[in-house]
Every structure is written in C-alpha cells, then in structure tokens.
Amino acid sequence: MEPDIKINPASKWDIRQKVWDYIEEKNLANFPRPVHHRIPNFKGAFTACARVSELEVFTQTPEVKVDPDKPLEGARLAVLQAQKTLLVPTPRLRTGLFNKITPPQGASKEQLQICSSSQGVKDFSVPVGLDAKVKVDLVVVGSVAVSEKGFRIGKGEGFADMEYGMMAAMGAVSESTVVVTVVHDCQVVEIPEELIESHDLTVDYILTPTRVIKTNCQLPKPQGIIWTKLKTALREREAAPLRLTWQGAQHRAFLDYSDPQAAEQALEALQGLSLNGHSLQADDICTFTDKKQDLYMACLVRSVWV
Fold this sequence. Notes:
Blueprint: H1 12-25, H2 45-50, H3 56-60, E1 63-66, H4 73-81, E2 85-89, E3 98-101, H5 109-116, H6 118-123, E4 125-128, E5 138-141, E6 145-146, E7 152-153, H7 159-169, E8 178-182, E9 205-207, E10 212-214, H8 227-236, E11 243-247, E12 252-257, H9 260-270, E13 274-275, E14 278-279, E15 281-289, E16 295-302
Helix pairs in contact: 4-5
Keywords: RNA-binding
InterPro entries: FTHF_cligase, FTHF_cligase-like_sf, NagB/RpiA_transferase-like, Nucleotide-bd_a/b_plait_sf
GO cellular component, one term: cytoplasm
C-alpha cells in the first residue's frame, strides 16, 4: 500500500514532525491534542487494538506487556478480558520497570475498562521488581511512525527501547518474543534503514484499523542495557554509586556519589573501561542538590547500550 505521508531521506525528528503535522492537519486524533511530542491517540485505535487477539502468539502466551500510552488502552483491555497477566511499564520508569494490573475478582467489563485506563493502571496495580521471574512472549508498544519492514520511531525519549533492553537484561524477553505496534494507517511510512540504530526496538507486527502487517524484520532486537555489568565493574573497583539514573535516548547514565573523593575515584575507575566491546566515556564531575537538600557529586557516563 502506498504510504499517505511521503518521506524523503531525513532524520528521525523530520519523520516525527511530518507524521504529527499530518495527523493534526487531517484531524485524525482524539484527546490529548495536539499530538506533537506524544504517541498519537489516533481515531480508530480501539479497532486496531482489537486485532491483537487475532494473533496466534496472543492465544498462546499467559503474560503480555503493553505500554501505558492512551491509544493502547484497547490492547490492555483485550489482555484483561482474555484473563491474561497484564504488565504495564511504570510511567517514565520512575519507580521500577513493571506494574502488574490486578482487577477486582469477578470484574465486569466496565471494571476491566477502568483497569485498562491510565487511572486504572495507577489504582489496580502492584509493582514487579527487577529480580522477579517474568517471561514475556508478547510486547505491545506505541509508535509515532513505523515502516512495513518493522523499523520503528517513537516520540524520541527512548523509553520503549530502554524498557526492552532492561527486559532483555533480566531475561524477561528472548529471541522468540513478538513485538507488536498499534498505529493509524497514515503512520506506516518509509523509514530508511540507516536511521535505525542497534538500541532501537523493531517490530514484528503492525496493527492498524484496516490491516495486520507482518514485517518479517531481520534486524535484531536490543540485547540489553549493560547497567548490571557497569555497576558490577564499579563495585569491583570500590566505586559503586549511591544512585544510577538512565537516560536511554541520550545513551547515558548519571552516577551519583556523596562526596567529591568518591566521584573522583569513580572517574579514575571508568578511564579506559570497556564493556561488551563498548568503550565508556566519563565526563567531568558536577554537583547538585536533591529534594532533601543532600549534596551529591554526579559523574556522567555515555555509550552504555549493548
């Protein structure tokens, strides 16, 4: 099918902007508006989401991870109606990786609809720790743009890529895990392969209001974030941080320490450090004060993806 939006060789941000502009211009989205810098809540999202139950993998898997985006509400509802375990990432990974949605016993359809909403995800969930034994065979993500070859572009913050990398690191996903995205037909565009990097999450199926597209994508999924290996390496060098904060889209992490000496020791430990063949670049130390007015020394580390 010929794409609605013509994409010339461009950057990811050019493609995002064209898709967002087109959806706004054609009035193809529901609340929240405008769609810029969001995963668009497109009209027909529930119809597209309902197609997830048509996939063979859906009938076979007991656990499904669905992103918390508004247009994926129908996919979350389909998982709950099928009495499967629904895992939803915590918004912006603030308090961990997953929440498990636990509807009331004997919940009605109306109650399940509430549980599948953003408010329901907050009210009917329990956190799942990174050390939990989770096996996810089906992952449903939102997208700003996707190609029929399975190349995906999100809203630019890197959370879907980072979530998958963290799941890979904890053994929750494998090569057989199926990744599905749900989009409007106009969001299916041509994306040059050279824009796709090793940490970018690709998809196996695209669900739209009118189609189910099997991509047969040959690019590998992200293999994981090396955060555990980095922390182990720092611990071995007696330079373990008090706190580690990831910024997936920027390929970097902040390591926080309680005093300048500890931060300096970490900088020295990071010099020349390479994990899985990837060199790490440690930037200068900076100071900041957190909400409790405790002083920390922060050390910035770049290139932390496998």
